[in-house]
């Protein structure tokens, strides 16, 4: 008798933790069949940041359209799905609720297993859509709300070995951009401007106590704001390109040095970059330069489309959690303060 053909595993991912309404379908945990994202940047630009109430309303309007588009693009129906994975947290509670309730309704209507996913686990698993993960590994997660080093000894096991004590890197970027009168989101503007300037302004780097893998960017952000204000009061002109380059250099130095130190100490085979700030050109270049000279550690950086919030990463993480038997019932609720270790 011929070998019995194993059916492809199809997982739908739903992501609405902030201001992107996203639905994707992933085949066998690694292959993107469809990945649809409706961004709200234009709506939030005039407010200089994401307005939770506005975000939630947009998700309500968009979610069914994005869902239908993802299924059409994949050329499948609900009967082809094995499970529905959804971001349960962290994020804006009103925004998360839209995705969670959409996922619960679909799981109930089509009798499908429901898999809750931690948003950061999703960012980490975006890398699996690029290449297979090799354990033990270390992931540097840098986004608007998070900056952390996550150690993984196997699939679905997350140990946070360092995290920010105040501002996340992305948050610091946005606040510095606002000081320099740049539009929201500020990160990409600073990154571009930094490429044109020189890091000539002396700004602090918070290394914290010896041996710590934690981060702190609040002092750096304040130092930039003070530098701008002092210059204004004294009538001195600061080149914004140089200020951007100096700020970016300070952030990148700390991120890269701590990641390298942790990678060596934990003896990892792979270092993954994850999160929205992973799109930062300066950070990508600095990590590449550092890890290209290190034997035995592979650096994986996802393409720009998988750095920002998307549902393909949620489905990729969901696929592993589904295989591990993680399920939620219809009492699943959005949890804005969800801890990544809750998956372990």
Characterise this structure.
With 344 residues, this protein is of the alpha/beta class. The chain folds into 2 domains: 10-125 and 307-343, 2-Layer Sandwich (Nucleotidyltransferase, domain 5); 133-301, Nucleotidyltransferase, domain 5 (2-Layer Sandwich), CATH 3.30.420. 41% of the residues lie in helices and 17% in strands. It has helices spanning 41-45, 52-74, 93-109, 119-125, 169-179, 186-196, 218-233, 240-265, 281-292, 312-323; strands at 10-15, 20-27, 31-39, 83-89, 114-118, 137-142, 147-152, 159-163, 270-274, 298-300. The strands form 2 sheets. It has a 5-stranded mixed sheet with strand order 3-2-1-4-5, with helices on both faces. A 5-stranded mixed sheet has the order 8-7-6-9-10, with helices on both faces. The chain is globular.
Class of the largest domain in CATH?
Alpha Beta
Taken from the alpha-carbon principal axes, the silhouette is globular
> Helices and strands, in N-to-C order?
EEEHHEHEHEEEHHHHEHEH
- What is the helix fraction of residues, given as a range? 40-55%
Question: What is the number of beta strands?
Answer: 10
How many structural domains?
A: 2
Task: Output the structural class.
Answer: alpha/beta
Total number of helices = 10
- Under the CATH scheme, the architecture of the largest domain is 2-Layer Sandwich
In round numbers, the mean pLDDT is: 94
Sheet bearing the most strands, described? 5 strands, mixed
Tell me the β content. 15-25%
Order of neighbouring strands in the sheet with most strands: 3-2-1-4-5
CATH topology of the largest domain: Nucleotidyltransferase, domain 5
């Amino acid at each position: 008798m011929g070998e019995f053909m194993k059916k492809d595993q199809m997982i739908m991912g739903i992501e609405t933790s902030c201001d992107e309404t996203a639905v994707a379908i992933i085949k066998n945990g690694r292959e993107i069949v469809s990945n649809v994202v409706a961004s709200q940047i234009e709506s939030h630009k005039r407010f200089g940041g994401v307005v939770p109430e506005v975000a939630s309303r947009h998700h309500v309007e968009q979610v069914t359209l994005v869902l239908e588009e993802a299924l059409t693009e994949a050329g499948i129906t609900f009967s082809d799905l094995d499970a529905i994975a959804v971001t349960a947290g962290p994020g804006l509670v009103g925004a998360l609720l839209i995705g969670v309730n959409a996922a619960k309704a679909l799981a109930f209507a089509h009798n499908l297993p429901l898999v809750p996913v931690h948003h950061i686990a999703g960012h980490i698993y975006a890398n699996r859509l690029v290449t297979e993960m090799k354990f033990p590994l270390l992931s540097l997660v840098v986004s608007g709300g998070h900056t952390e080093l996550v150690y993984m000894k196997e699939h679905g096991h997350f140990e946070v070995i360092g995290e920010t004590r105040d501002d996340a890197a992305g948050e610091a970027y946005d606040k510095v951009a606002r000081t320099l009168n740049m539009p929201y989101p500020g990160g990409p503007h600073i990154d571009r401007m930094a490429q044109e300037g020189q890091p000539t302004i002396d700004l602090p780097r918070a290394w914290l106590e010896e041996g710590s893998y934690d981060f702190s960017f609040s002092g750096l952000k304040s130092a930039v704001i003070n530098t701008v204000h002092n210059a204004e009061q004294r009538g001195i002109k600061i080149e914004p390109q140089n200020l951007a380059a100096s700020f970016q250099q300070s952030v990148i130095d700390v991120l890269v040095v701590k990641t390298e130190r942790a990678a060596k100490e934990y003896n990892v085979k792979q270092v993954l970059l994850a999160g929205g700030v992973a799109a930062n050109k300066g950070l990508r270049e600095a990590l590449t330069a550092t890890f290209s000279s290190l034997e035995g550690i592979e650096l994986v950086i996802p393409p720009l489309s998988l750095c920002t919030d998307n549902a393909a990463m949620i489905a990729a993480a969901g696929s592993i959690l589904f295989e591990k038997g993680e399920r939620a019932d219809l009492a699943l609720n959005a949890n804005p303060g969800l801890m990544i270790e809750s998956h372990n």
